[in-house]
Amino acid sequence: MDQTRFTPDLDLDGLSPNEAFAILGNEIRLEIIRVLWRADAAHEYDDGSDTANTMSYSGLQNEVDIDDNGKFNYHLSQLAPHFIRRTDDGYRLSGAGKQIARTVIAVSGTDRLDFSTEIEDDCPLCGAHVEATYEDQWLRIRCTECDGLFGDQAPTGTLFLTSYPAAGMTTRNPDQALATGLYRCALDITYMMYGICRECAGHISSSVTVCEAHENHRGEPCATCGTPFSVWADMRCDTCGFAKRLPVEMFATGLAMATGLIDNQELDIHSPSFEEAVSLLQSSVETTVSKGPLRASITIEGETSTFTITLDDDMNVVDLDRRLQSETAPS
Predict the structure, then answer these.
(1) What are the boundaries of each domain within the chain?
(2) Taking the model in full, what pTM does it have?
């Protein structure tokens, strides 16, 4: 298998990714993390306080239920100092230990939810029935008849697709889950557009591909590239591999949604509507491409203002312009 998931020389405070996997691949060590988490043995706040709760050695050993002192000490030593910290008062989770616990909680819960009876919106492309599914920690909206927004770059009919931790479903109805998923996706895009990975804070590498013979009639996918969009961007974290491949229009509108650069009366960025977002992409976004060097300019027209973002072939923002409609209207 090609070793492309991690940077070869990546060193996290002396701990490589392979070593971290090896340390956590043991149920006793994971149980130690679980016990400390349930006891709230960690900093009270992640960054803003020196106050921390701890567990005594004997209390921790008793909860983990390991009688052999040598065995227990060995597993503690494997976790310290990266995932747990020993202090004069006892043991607590480190920041990395808290993150492991939170990740386990986030992915806990049901893996399949039925949204089909709750979706009332029709497909914004063809008007057909729309289905929403949740599987393998992914939330997907698909049209039951047309090819969707992504052509052959995604499963047939896909209108929206995003990762969504199962635990986040427990307190939201389907409409709320869809709005939250859309906003999470917009925030992911915003991080990436600033060159930051939302998962690990690593550096994002980007590239742009253009369909030179693009033809798109009445929303049908281009026969050459198989999608309705002529310019696509690949953005991937150099460290953990978190990535998105999307049309540049979606990166631009996602950035606009998350940062409020378009009119809030048209799109409430705190509870975005899927129908509004697709309508915006369809009717209010125009893309122009120039060569030598490559530039993709995406213009988003709001009710009172027009926002234009120009990107180079590495997805760097080379120009950003927002004008009131009164400034652009002909005299």
Answers:
(1) 17-106, 112-328
(2) 0.75
